[in-house]
Structures are given as C-alpha cells and as structure tokens.
Amino acid sequence: MEQHPKEILQQYWGFPDFRNSQEEIIHAVLQGKDVMALLPTGGGKSLCYQVPALAKDGICIVVSPLVALINNQVETLKSLGIKAIALTGGISFEEVNQLLDNCLYGNYKFLYLSPERLQQDLVRDRIQQMNVNLIAIDEAHCISQWGNDFRPAYLKCAELRELVPQAPVIALTATATDMVVQDICENLGLKEPLRVKDSFARNNITFNVFWDEDKNYRLRELCRECRTSVIVYVRNRRMTVTLTNYLINQGQSATFFHGGINKKDKEERLNNWLSNKVKVMVATNAFGMGIDKPDVGLVIHYQIPDSMENYFQEAGRAGRNGQPARAVMIVNQKDESQVRNQFLGSLPDVAFIKLLYNKLNNYFQIPFGEGSSETYPLPFNAFCDTYKLKGNLTYNGLRILDQNSVISLSEAFSQKTTIRFIASKGHLFQYLDTHTKTAPIIQTILRTYGGVFDFDTKINTLLIAKKVNTSEQEVIRTLERLAQDEIIEYSAQHNDLEITFLVPREDERTIHMFAQKIKQMIAVKTANVDQILTYVKNTTVCRSAQLLSYFGEKQPTPCGQCDVCLQKKPIDQDIITIVQQEILKHLQIQKYGSRELIRLLTYKESSVLMALQGLLEDGSISINSTNQYEISK
Length: 633
Known about the structure:
This protein is of the alpha/beta class.
C-alpha cells in the first residue's frame, strides 16, 4: 500500500507540512504527469522527486551535473535509511555492472548519475530492465542552449523517456528565463507538463553592492563582522588561493575549493566547513550546488558573475535557515571591463567559426566532400600557433562545432602543464650559476608568468620555446630536470585533442546551417552581461526589487535594508551628532584613521563617514600627513 506523501515527509525529514508548491508538484508526479518546476535556491527541489519516488514501487533515476552534488544527495539519503546509489567517474566496468545489478535486485530507491553515463550501452540496457517510477532531471537548465551552464551531454536525457516510456519526468531548476524553460520542455519532450514557479522573494536576505577600490579591505571587514559561515565566490582557481591566504593572514579561518583539488582534499575541506571548523569558504561558482548548509550568514561575490541567474542562485545559498543573512557584491571601477573581456572576449562569432572550420580541414588536408567519420589527433597548441589563433577563442569554437555535430570533440583533452617553484629564490640563483644552460628557459618563465613561487601555474610550453628560440621538447626536458632537482613541482598532461569529422567538408554551407544559432548565443551572452552590470550600477531601485523584476515578479515595497534603500533614508541628524561626540572622545586620547574609527564605533559606516565630514567642515578636526584624524589645534 502506498504511503501518503505527508507521512513520508514526517517519517524521513521530520517536517509536518510541505512548503509553497511542493505538495502540488508531488501530487502531479504521483498521478503520472510530467512537471517543469522552477523553484528558487533553498526552495526544496529535491523533495519534489524524492517523496513521490518513495511513495511508489520502483526506482527513481536522477540525472545531475556535478559529482559533489550527486555524492551529497546520496549520502544524505543513506543517512536517512534510504537506499541510493551513485554512478560517478572513476568506477571500473565491473563495479558499474555490480551497482546496476543492485538497482535491479537490491530494492534500491534512487539511482543518481551524470548525463555522460547515459552514453554507455551497459547503463542504458540496465535502465530498460528496471522498474523506473520517475525520471528527475536536476539543474535542468543545463539542457538548454540558452542556459548559462549548457552541457551537450544533457541532451541525452531525452532518451530516458524512450528507455522507460511509462515513467513521468520532472525537470527542476532554480533559475531560468521563460526562453530557457521553453527550451527545457521541448528538449526533454515533456508531455503537457504542469509548470510551477514559486516566488523568488528571499525576504531574509539583504542584497548589497559595495563599491570599494580596496576590495581586500572590504572583504576582510565583511568576514570579520559575520558570526556564521561565509562563502566567497571568485571566477578562477588562483584567486581562491590568493584570497584564502589573505584572509588567513588577517586572522580569519578560511579554506578554498575548486575543481582542480583532489577528491580527498575536497572532502576534508568541505567537511571542515560544513562542521564549522572553518568559517570562510573561498570558491569558484560551482561550489554550493546541492550542498545543504542552512547557517550561511554571508555570501560575497568578489568579482561580478556572468548573469543574473548565476548571481541569484549563488547569493541564495545564504540564509537557508530563514535567519537574516546578507549577499554582497564587491566591485570597483575595473570590474566592468574585466567581466566583458572574460565572458564576451572569448565568444567566437560566425566569421571565426568559418575560419576555424576551414583551417581544421586544411590542417588535415581534407578535400571538399570528404572527411566524414575520420578521426585525427589535434596538437592544440601547435595548431593555434600555425594559424595564429587565440587559444580560448579556438577551444570555444571547437566546442561550438562539437555542439552542432560538425565534429566530435574528445573529452580526453588535457593539454596542460603546470609548475610551481619550490626552491627559495636564493637557492634558485645558485642553481642558475651551476646550470647555465637552463637559465634562458627559467628566466623566460619568470618573466612570462606571475605567481610561479606561490601557485600551481599553467604554462604554455610552445610559447616558452618560441620566446627562447628552442624546441618545445627541449623546454619539456628542462622542466623534467628542474623537477628532479627539486627546483619546481611539475605536472604535465600531454593528451592532445582528438576530433572526429562527422560530416563531409562543405565549408560555408556547413556553418551556415547553424550560423543564426551562434548569433543568438552571442546576443544572449551579451544581454546577460549587460543585465548584471545594469543591476550593479542601478542606485535608484531597491536591490530585491531589481532581482525579482528580472524573474518576472513585483515587490510591493522596497526592502528598506539594501545599499540603495539606505541611501534614500533621510539623514538622522541626532545620530550624526552622537557619532561626532563619540569620535571627538576617541580623538582626544589618540589619532585614528577612518577605517580604525569605523571598526571602533558601533555605528554604520555611512554614519561615521558623514560625521567625520561634518567635523572636518566645521574645523573641529583635521587630517595629518599620515591620513589620521586629530583634534584641531
């Protein structure tokens, strides 16, 4: 006999009632209907498929994009006494076979897998044999070409419906525009789905944008003020290390997290943060997806993200326990050009894709009308160097050709060499004196790459070879010798790209078939960056109201707490007078800078700065040569 959904909710999660649209979604799934659920971060998406799957006989197939997300979900279910299995990378064929047997005969309720797993015949065959009661596509925006995290492998999710046509499909995502939602429904082949969208309002989160040329100072102060867990988001791996070291040096408990960390370190750092042994997690943007830590009191974006969707999803990881929390973006005058260069500067246009396709065919000497189904190894750096092509632009262009089935791009590509100098600078100079032949290569590396004494730094061995006027092989041999002599740590992966041409060469005609799609993609990406920059620079509309408006909602009243709302509040002169009196008391004892006074006093920063300005204007205080305030003589 099937259990009632509320009984399951109470039994496993201890909640007496569902929230918002959860109950409506669950009942639709139990009736065999497809569902498109758009629920905000912290909106309880996982319960929308976990509860109905437990209420019915059979197993639920869950497709999810991240290993960390899959592992977290599976461990959570296991801790509740629910049988769940994860098919992640690094598992042998025999183990996959055994796990799938468990799904068939072991009374398991959930099978979590990545979309890439659906390309394996073994997995597909076994799924057809299972009693599948539900298909759940998590982070479903990944299936849309207009989504910020489009993954071509997600398109394989539609084939699950063919494998188990009797099972309903539920697609879930936290942030998606109307265009992305429509794309999800079409790509998954949802049949007259129930479309549900809960309010995105997060009334317990105060959203702020702080302009500060000294972003490190602002970061330190924000982390110092917060008494609970903090997430700091940055855009690259090196920055996670840099900011973590800075915060530790400033007395903060911090660690970092990114995709290049080994599995053991990831687990250790995540557990330390989850258990509050570490306060601040500095991470790239994938961190936090599906990780349920309710007591995050502050989310900081140290750099501007690429879209409103990503910003809102990441900021929404604050305050999941309903307690007051803050989401802060720290920006300065350089950030606009940096975000445009990073996210738009490496977008290939139609002309570049045509050029790239032509050069690929010429490189392998493929005649017109031929080349279909032929596979070639592509030495990426050498190819770019031959035709003077930019690396990022070229790789993104190859991905577009792959996504549009012109070529198949091997996932084994790992043309990456990283080094870090572990010898002291003094030891290095001594080494150069006795190994003079290595000097030109070492000096070129030091001139070309910053931070090689502090970070694992990705280097281009072909570029170094050209600068030194030697062969790439000689550079590699030198690096290997430096590693043996314990001058550097050296990691080299030289698995070149492998591409398979899927259609005969037709140049212009081949690209013309999807040229319009490329133009639309560029337009969407450009609009995304424009919209997030508009949000950053808009100082007239409440931050919460701006965010809700982007997602098609209206906020009846301003939040009253964000930086925009606070600047509109009338100045309370009585408060300013009290602050001025406090400042004068402190300055009678010793001299202070503005930052010291802000930290010393319990008033808002804006009130302290306004009070200082007033005291300067009436001549009560002055600024000395070291930028400290003192009582006027």
